[in-house]
Amino acid sequence: MYKQILVIAVMLALLFVIAAAQAPAEKKEAAEMTETDSKPLPSRGVVQIAVVVRDVEKAAKTWAEFFGMEVPKTSLTDPPEDSHATYRGKPTDARAKLAFLKMDNLQIELIEPVGEPSTWMDFLKANGEGVHHIAFEVKGMKEQIANLEKKDMPLIQFGEWTAHTGGCYAYFDSIKQLGVVIELLENY
Prior knowledge:
This protein is of the alpha+beta class. It has one domain (about 1-185): 2,3-Dihydroxybiphenyl 1,2-Dioxygenase, domain 1. The protein is built from six helices and ten strands. It has helices spanning about 1-30, 55-65, 80-85, 120-125, 140-150, 175-180; strands spanning about 45-50, 75, 85, 90, 95-100, 105-115, 130-135, 155-160, 165-170, 180-185. A ten-stranded mixed sheet has the order 2-5-6-1-7-10-9-8-3-4. About 30% of the residues are buried.
């Protein structure tokens, strides 16, 4: 578990360095784009790094001890009739147990897959526990899904939650381009 925490810390440091170095280049590239090009991702920044785990209660305790914070409560995602979850374009009954560790500038989300098919269970079976995705907050989810699919980043899984009106998430297969799954969150 501590190895995973170290990996996330290194990833965060790299994200900040890359973002600082690319900012001027991104502005120039955006100005040179034509209307037929896909658009850059309009985001408010990284809001979450997620780790898939086998036992969310155990992982939440370990992470909380590592950061010296209170152990977060766990919750179960909404049932399929409320979440309208799809996996690779088809409805899925898969759910997840979640725990959120709130840091100053982002969340660490711990995900224990419950049922399948899901991107979480696929990841756990293929890789074991580890960093699953980096999440960005966006507006206009439908437009952003189309935008990322134009970048050859297909939608893997989509769902909604009832705790926030109109809240939804979308995972994209961006491994080839970015080395990690990307999640978009709207009304987060």
